[in-house]
Design goal:
Layout: H1 13-104, H2 110-123, E1 132-135, E2 141-144, H3 165-176, E3 178-186, E4 206-216, E5 221-228, H4 230-253, E6 261-265, E7 271-273, H5 282-285, H6 287-298, E8 308-314, E9 321-330, E10 335-342, H7 343-394, H8 404-407, H9 412-458, H10 461-481
Helix pairs in contact: 1-2, 1-4, 1-7, 7-9
Length: 482
């Protein structure tokens, strides 16, 4: 029976076991690294989104607080102006009442009284060259400080916002007796064209104005006076400029990421507030910047509160790369708040952790392979010794003592070695005895064969004749010696 060849190095049990351990460790490392990378990316993305959302929320809160302060200031200022207008108008109303009383008393004619009232209304000035005016029910300016308006019918005049100013003032006085109206109107003695004041007899720069009107019933006149509000608007604008500067500095100090930033776009998509340490002029001067502004505005929520997320590819930091944008709206300012962070920076912590995990997994894999090789060698070596002993037994050179070390083990391999050692010893001894028996049987068989062959020779006639002749020769020799 042919003796089987020893297995090759790569097909040996130890190598296969080591490869199995390495494969399991590699699979475990791959799964662990992939899971860690995905988890890290999700955590980094969630952390970045949370930071961006907090930045937007804090900025929105600051803007709301600033807007509340502005509104409170404007409301207080308007209340003060309204009270002042009513107080200022009171002497004119009293003068008209006195003139009407003189008409009733017959001291003046109505025409004389009205002429006097018109002159008083045209002449009175106060504050910042502020004045009074009077209109009849048809919208005719019976008395106006501006000679270009005086005597003209202004019933269909609109201000820059399309509001029928005189029509609404007359309606307010006729229906409510008195009241306030805000509109836009050119200042006294301005000569420049007033855009937006259609059908205006005279031009002029229009400015926001608050007027108080009173219905003087005896003559059906609408008496009014007003003050311009551009100083309030200037103060509010100064407050907004200061707030914008503060926001710009706050934007610069916000640590969203290394290159992340937050800024404000106005309703036209232009940068209204930028971080003080960043130059965003390219947004309004380059094709990619204008596209970026359009994308941000297009993804802005319609109301205050929601935050929309969008990914864009742009050159916000010079190179074309992907950015994650969070966009919120502040309707009362017509602002769009934008936070922008490079996607690479969002993924960087996850990539770093994944790389560290991969390196750690490789180290664990190398260590595991080393330990696996040693362990597999320790496990497989007794099996190899048993295999060698089996080959020695087959080749009739088995030495039971070669398994003493393996047989000393207390595990299943030790029990197998003890059993094989005992069986091998018994088999060798049995084979030795069998060989001795075969040898003895061979000797016996050979002796019998010699006898059989000798008998075959001696039984022949030739041998018998030869024996007779030898016998005669011996007799003759004996006689001769005698």
């Amino acid at each position: 029976m042919a003796i089987p060849d020893m297995p090759s190095r790569w097909s040996s049990l130890s190598v296969r076991l080591a490869l199995l351990i390495a494969g399991l460790l590699a699979l475990s490392a791959l799964v662990t690294t992939a899971y860690s990378a995905i988890t890290a990316h999700r955590a980094a993305s969630a952390s970045s989104e949370q930071a961006m959302q907090k930045a937007l929320e804090s900025t929105t809160l600051l803007v709301h607080q600033s807007n509340d302060q502005e509104q409170a200031f404007r409301s207080t200022a308007l209340s003060d102006r309204a009270a002042q207008l009513k107080n200022i108008a009171q002497p004119i109303i009293e003068t008209l009442n006195e003139l009407d009383a003189e008409v009733t008393a017959g001291q003046l004619t109505k025409a004389q009284a009205q002429a006097t009232a018109e002159n008083v209304i045209r002449a009175v000035r106060y504050g910042n060259d502020d004045y009074f005016f009077a209109f009849d029910p048809t919208g005719l300016a019976v008395a106006h400080a501006n000679p270009k308006f005086d005597g003209k019918n202004l019933f269909d005049v609109k201000d820059a916002d399309g509001q029928f100013v005189i029509r609404e003032l007359i309606h307010l006085a006729q229906t409510k007796g008195s009241g306030y109206l805000q509109y836009k109107w050119p200042r006294l003695n301005t000569t420049a064209a007033s855009p937006g004041l259609s059908a205006m007899p005279s031009g002029g720069f229009s400015a926001p104005k608050l007027s108080y009107v009173y219905q003087f019933a005896p003559w059906e006149w609408t008496i009014g006076t007003g003050v311009y509000l551009d100083d309030i608007d200037a103060t509010v604008a100064a407050m907004r400029a200061k707030d914008a500067q503060g926001l710009s500095q706050s934007f610069a100090s916000l640590n969203i990421s290394d290159r992340g930033l937050i800024f404000v776009l106005d309703k036209d998509g232009k940068v209204a507030i930028a971080p003080s340490n960043r130059d965003l002029t390219a947004l309004g001067t380059t094709a990619w910047g204008k596209n970026f502004e359009k994308t941000a505005l297009a993804n802005a929520p319609k109301s205050d509160g929601p935050i929309n997320h969008v990914d864009v590819t742009t050159k916000l930091s010079g190179d074309q790369e992907s950015w994650q944008l969070d966009v919120a709206s502040i309707p009362e300012r017509d602002w769009t708040l934008v936070t922008a962070v490079p996607v690479a920076e969002i993924n960087a912590p996850g990539n770093s952790l994944a790389l560290k995990q991969a390196i750690l997994s490789l180290l664990v894999l190398a260590l595991g392979i080393g330990i696996g090789l040693l362990t597999s060698r320790r496990i497989v070596r007794p099996v190899e010794q048993l295999t060698a002993a089996a080959r020695d037994l087959q080749e009739e050179r088995f030495d039971p003592t070669s398994l003493d070390v393996v047989a000393a083990r207390t595990d299943e391999v030790g029990v197998l070695a003890q059993t094989f050692q005992r069986m091998g010893t018994e088999l060798v001894e049995r084979e030795r005895k069998l060989r001795e028996q075969v040898y003895k049987l061979t000797v016996i068989i050979d002796h019998d064969k010699v006898q059989e062959e000798a008998s075959a020779i001696t039984d022949t006639d030739y041998f018998k004749d030869l024996a007779e002749r030898a016998k005669e020769i011996r007799k003759q020799n004996a006689t001769t010696q005698n």
